[in-house]
């Protein structure tokens, strides 16, 4: 919910309770969980939920904006790492963790991101720009292949997250296979 007016204290508390409940319910049941369950888990009526979040996309957007901002900040912090390849892989692990927090997240996010006017879209663009800088740093250090774009990297990493959702061992293996293919000097397909 975005507004030029600050929220009353009780409205702010309800908003925060709804976000916390959505995080819990979506983690257990996926992003397609019933919104009634979110309201019930928060101990708040449906009308209050829909006053704050008129659509599922509004709720997903509010829940994920901070996460994209955190990914952006993580990428910016990792730029100082002495090993640009390790820094990039650390960030990719963070990205996968984000993408696998809630079942069905990728599809929900794609729906929201189609509207470039959303707060989530702006937050995602900031995260992508920071990831591009981190990737460029690794490429300039000649440890990551120079022909890789940030869009390709994010799509590949998102594919790993979707393919191995719910299986940490498989996620680790697929990420390792992916990152081994990113080494500078490996044969291009």
Automatic annotation (TrEMBL):
MF-aspect GO terms: DNA-binding transcription factor activity; transcription cis-regulatory region binding
Gene3D superfamilies: Tetracycline Repressor, domain 2 (1.10.357.10)
Record has DNA-binding as a keyword: yes
Residues annotated as signal peptide: none
Keywords: DNA-binding, Transcription, Transcription regulation
The UniProt record lists the keyword Signal: no
Pfam families xrefs: TetR_C_43 (PF21597), TetR_N (PF00440)
Domain of life: Bacteria
InterPro entries (alphabetical): Homeodomain-like_sf, HTH-type_TetR-like_transc_reg, HTH_TetR, Tet_transcr_reg_TetR-rel_C_sf, TetR_SbtR-like_C
Residue ranges annotated for the HTH tetR-type domain, each copy included: 12-71
Residues annotated to bind DNA: 34-53
PANTHER family named in the record: HTH-TYPE TRANSCRIPTIONAL REGULATOR BETI, HTH-TYPE TRANSCRIPTIONAL REGULATOR RUTR
The protein, known as: Regulatory protein TetR
The species this protein was found in: Pseudofrankia inefficax (strain DSM 45817 / CECT 9037 / DDB 130130 / EuI1c) (Frankia inefficax)
Organism ancestry: Bacteria, Bacillati, Actinomycetota, Actinomycetes, Frankiales
């Amino acid at each position: 919910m975005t507004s030029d007016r600050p929220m009353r204290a009780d409205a702010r508390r309800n908003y925060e309770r709804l976000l916390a409940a959505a995080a819990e319910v979506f983690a257990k049941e996926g992003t397609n969980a019933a919104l009634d369950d979110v309201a019930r888990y928060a101990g708040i009526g449906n009308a209050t939920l829909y006053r704050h979040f008129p659509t599922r996309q509004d709720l997903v957007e509010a829940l994920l904006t901070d996460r994209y901002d955190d990914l952006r900040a993580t990428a910016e912090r990792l730029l100082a790492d002495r090993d640009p390849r390790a820094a990039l892989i650390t960030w990719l692990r963070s990205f996968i963790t984000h993408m696998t927090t809630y079942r069905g997240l990728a599809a929900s996010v794609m729906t929201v991101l189609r509207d470039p006017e959303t707060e989530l879209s702006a937050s995602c663009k900031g995260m992508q720009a920071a990831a591009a800088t981190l990737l460029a740093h690794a490429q300039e250090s000649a440890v990551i292949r120079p022909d890789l774009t940030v869009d390709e990297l994010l799509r590949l990493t998102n594919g790993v997250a979707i393919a191995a959702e719910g299986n940490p061992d498989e996620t680790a293996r697929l990420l390792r296979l992916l990152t081994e293919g990113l080494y500078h000097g490996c044969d291009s397909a």
